[in-house]
Design brief:
Layout (H helix, E strand, L loop, with lengths): L5 E5 L6 H12 L2 E4 H8 L7 H24 L4 E6 L3 H12 L5 E7 L2 H14 L9 H8 L13 E5 L8
Parallel strand pairs: 1-3, 1-4, 2-3, 4-5
């Protein structure tokens, strides 16, 4: 049986993970699963701090894992707009694909902090409902926990590097 491929992303807040994940899912005709959409739908207006996010995200993960594994087992590709920004988060992704022996790809978007902050400010303007959480303070709180993925972790990884202006190279 052919397994679908799992694609997931690492990159600081504001790096463009959501945009890139949506683009890849469209191009590859994959199922796109967005953590932000699930959290907003299942826990509306309950997330305003990093601790809130951690709590509600952890609560959803077991069901999301089962859902993704079921989709992959049908031979359908899945693109997850979920962060793989810490070793623990990446271990969760590893459990998803390794338990069912599905192929995977970790896309690491390496973007400078200044560009991430600029994109977060733009996102706040375009999506006023995110003004509470898309702040410099939240960026700094989240970035403290960010751990750049390493080839030693054993992922099939693609790195997209950007210069200070935000264009890819």
């Amino acid at each position: 049986m052919k397994m679908g491929k799992l694609t997931f992303f690492a990159g600081k807040m504001g790096a463009g993970k959501s945009t890139k994940s949506f683009d890849i899912s469209r191009r590859s005709n994959a199922v796109w699963i967005s953590e932000d959409e699930w959290l907003a739908s299942v826990y509306p207006n309950r997330i305003s701090t990093l601790d809130d996010y951690i709590h509600y995200s952890s609560t959803l993960k077991p069901q999301i894992k089962k859902l993704v594994q079921t989709i992959l087992q049908t031979g359908t590709d899945v693109v997850m707009d979920y962060p793989a920004n810490t070793v623990a988060q990446r271990d969760w992704f590893k459990s998803i694909f390794s338990e069912i022996e599905a192929p995977h790809e970790l896309v690491y978007i390496d973007l400078p902090d200044a560009v991430c902050l600029k994109q977060i400010a733009k996102r706040r303007t375009e999506n006023p409902e995110r003004a509470k959480t898309d702040t410099i303070e939240m960026f700094e709180a989240v970035t403290k926990h960010f751990v750049e993925p390493s080839s030693l972790e054993g992922f099939n990884m693609v790195t997209i590097k950007y210069n200070q202006a935000g264009s890819s190279r």
